[in-house]
């Protein structure tokens, strides 16, 4: 059973002191009206798409320029001055950006923002660390290193070669995993070592969007709450936007993009056009 998805605009004032309260109320009203008209064929959810703070690979790409980065430097672990692979870490600025996101969450609580009903995070260290800092002390929130939502585009770039499953769950205490049975049968199981990354083939943007589509299907099928947080990477975020028919968006490191998504249950095996 597939879901046809589209984003939608909600009427709320960005400077209103109760802006988030109003937004959540609008979403609840829309979902209530949907249920009163024959069931749960249509559902609305608010997604917070968070990009990790600045990583050392971002510094290296800025240093050499994107063409040289893609053609040469991204395939290495470093240049003798900067180390970005495997699995690039946050820079001091990246840590500060994650702290800024944490402070923003705390501040927005006064305007009706609440803790997400579910949180997903990429299993790359820069995203895990960003998540950990962002939600530190906020109601004990734990994130899932969700294997269905494999992180950034995989392949070629050493910064996107993840560390072992053992390392992830022994290093990041705020992270949980899918139950082993579910993880084993997911499209992208979180195996002990990264089995998707290869040194000679980079995943396409279309394939990223297709992976994100499976994530959205799972979220709308399994998550009962209407507020979902995803901490990930620019490629995944633009894959998300592509999967709901929206243009790409250049979200800065440490940034958060709120998106309201309308999910419509499609009783067909054919793919819907958004």
UniProtKB/TrEMBL annotation:
GO MF term (any one): phosphatase activity
Signal peptide: none
SMART domains found in the cross-reference section: PGAM
InterPro entries (UniProt xref): His_Pase_superF_clade-1, His_PPase_superfam, PGM_Phosphatase
SUPFAM superfamilies according to UniProt: Phosphoglycerate mutase-like (SSF53254)
GO cellular component terms listed in the entry, alphabetical order: cytoplasm
Family matches, as Pfam families: His_Phos_1
Name of the protein in question: Phosphoglycerate mutase-like protein
Organism: Pleurotus ostreatus (Oyster mushroom)
């Amino acid at each position: 059973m597939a879901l046809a998805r589209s984003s939608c605009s909600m009427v709320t004032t960005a400077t209103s002191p109760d802006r988030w309260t109003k937004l959540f109320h609008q979403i609840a009203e829309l979902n209530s009206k949907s249920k009163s008209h024959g069931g749960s064929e249509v559902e609305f959810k608010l997604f917070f798409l968070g990009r990790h703070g600045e990583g050392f690979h971002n510094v290296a790409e800025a240093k050499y320029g994107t063409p040289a980065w893609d053609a040469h430097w991204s395939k290495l672990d470093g240049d003798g001055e900067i180390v970005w692979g495997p699995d690039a870490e946050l820079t001091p600025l990246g840590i500060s950006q994650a702290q800024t996101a944490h402070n923003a969450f705390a501040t927005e609580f006064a305007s009706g923002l609440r803790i997400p009903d579910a949180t997903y995070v990429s299993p790359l260290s820069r995203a895990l660390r960003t998540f950990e800092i962002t939600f530190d002390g906020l109601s004990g929130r734990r994130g899932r290193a969700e294997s269905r939502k494999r992180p950034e585009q995989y392949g070629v770039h050493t910064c996107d070669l993840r560390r072992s499953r053992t390392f992830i769950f022994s290093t990041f205490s705020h992270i949980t995993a899918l139950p082993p049975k579910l993880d084993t049968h997911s499209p992208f199981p979180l195996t002990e070592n990264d089995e998707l990354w290869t040194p000679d083939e980079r995943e396409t943007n279309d394939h990223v969007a297709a992976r994100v589509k499976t994530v959205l299907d799972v979220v709308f099928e399994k998550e009962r709450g209407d507020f979902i947080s995803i901490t990930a990477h620019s490629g995944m975020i633009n894959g998300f936007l592509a999967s709901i028919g929206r243009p790409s968006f250049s979200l800065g490191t440490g940034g958060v993009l709120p998106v309201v998504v309308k999910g419509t249950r499609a009783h067909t095996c054919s793919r819907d056009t958004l």
